[in-house]
Amino acid sequence: MTTTRTFTGATAPGPYTTPPTAADPYTYQVGFGNRFASEALPGALPVGCNTPQRCAYDLVSEQLNGAAFVSPRASQLNSWLYRIQPSLAHAPPRPLLPAAADIEAVFTSANPAAVATPQDYGWDKFPLPSASEGHVDFVAGLKTVAGHGDATLGRGLALHVYAANASMGPRRAFCNNDGDMLLLPQEGRLDVQTEFGRLMARPGELVVVQAGIRFSVRLPDGVGRGYAWEVFGGHFELPELGPVGANGMAQARDFETPVAGFDVDLASGWTVVVKLAGRLIEYEQPHTPFDVVAWHGNYAPYKYALERFVSSATSDRDQSDPSICCVVTARCGDGVVADLLVFTPKTLATRDTFRPPYFHRNMATELMGMVYGVWHGSGTRLEPGGLTYEPSYMPHGESHQRWIDATTADLGPERIFEDTIAFMIHVSAHVSLTKYALERSGCLQPVQDDVWRDVEPAFVRHLGALGGEPAAEP
Ligand SMILES: [Fe+2]
């Protein structure tokens, strides 16, 4: 009897793409910051050049870039698109629409609608549109909560919430010229059609659509609520890993970028809504903006499942700073850095350690939201779809009771954040709140009283030993 010990092997039939799932019918290319390449028709991508005299299928070549031409190679961001019609084929923008009442793009003292405050605040779940509001799509449902800097200067950021009950369209697209947008759906999936292809994001995933890219948002579950974080002038990057090494935290291969997909629609009137300096401006075009047959480059939308974040935390004693939970970071000009931190299930194993978040005052402002699960912090009240705000340099931490519990607990292995995804946008600067957030949201929580009021410090019990008047045990 003989045994076969040779095999001719196998070759990949093509580039790897992710398979569809029950929640997401689309496929994706994987990686972060790659030079991707995708063509929906064979041979649509030119070879060896970007602008052939005549493109395959008589497509039009068009570049979109997100970085200055003379940027260092590592920060170059651009893509080449091969499309049926050039993007310039549109009518002049209409006169400015009335300013959207709840969208802000300037957070300096020049804007009376941006309020600087040292008071911490919390918001319950932001409300969905009421029946009397009719159809509210993603753009109409955008409300700015907080921000820093000025979109017109390309410096700073804004945090919006969105609450919608209708898909955009038909034949309606959005383009944010103010900055890159990171969307975090909390209720209902977002079906995002972009010039680069389609993405489906469920609660627990984030989607980034960079500045200048046209996209349309549909709501396959009939409802959409979530967060939209926008950065002016900068782009989202993966943080340096330092001694963590090559692996861990948000791993590059877990980011997913669409494959090329195009529609043919040369007979319909499309409206593109541009956001510029916080104003919405519309223009018409007689063809779909989603007509890109092929593209290549590294300036392209992507999504990421936050459940895939690989936590790296202290395993012996003491605490790591929360930056160990950084998914993406963005430089927003003038040295301002903003990080997206995510809190996912993990095991605490430290000994002789105060395990809740330590008492602290940071230069950073903390904006914290929640996608699903339960938050057990005693210093803030947070529910999925809600928000908390801790201003720069203002002190915060746990209640006295939680301090007692944490300082007397038997410390064994402990699993926390099960079935929970909460996040924090950590901004190394002051962040202003909007009039919408403070006056019109309908979900602002009453200001919390001093959670340590009337507490006698345990230290006084030691005064006798120090030669003072001892206090009785409580
Ligand atoms: Fe904090």
From TrEMBL:
Keyword flag Metal-binding: yes
Sequence ranges assigned to domain Homogentisate 1,2-dioxygenase N-terminal in this UniProt record: 27-306
Record GO biological process: L-phenylalanine catabolic process; tyrosine metabolic process
Nucleotide-binding is among the record's keywords: no
Positions of the UniProt region annotated as Disordered: 1-20
Residues that, per the record, bind Fe cation: 360, 366, 396
Associated pathway: Amino-acid degradation; L-phenylalanine degradation; acetoacetate and fumarate from L-phenylalanine: step 4/6
Cofactor(s) needed by this chain: Fe cation
Domain Homogentisate 1,2-dioxygenase C-terminal: from-to ranges: 308-456
GO CC annotations on file: cytoplasm
Uppermost EC category: oxidoreductase
InterPro entries recorded: HgmA_C (IPR046451), HgmA_N (IPR046452), Homogentis_dOase (IPR005708), RmlC-like_jellyroll (IPR014710), RmlC_Cupin_sf (IPR011051)
Binding positions (homogentisate): 375, 396
Pfam families (UniProt xref): HgmA_C (PF04209), HgmA_N (PF20510)
Gene Ontology molecular functions: homogentisate 1,2-dioxygenase activity; metal ion binding
Superkingdom, natural source: Eukaryota
Catalytic activity, EC: 1.13.11.5
Family according to the record: Belongs to the homogentisate dioxygenase family.
Protein name per its UniProtKB record: homogentisate 1,2-dioxygenase
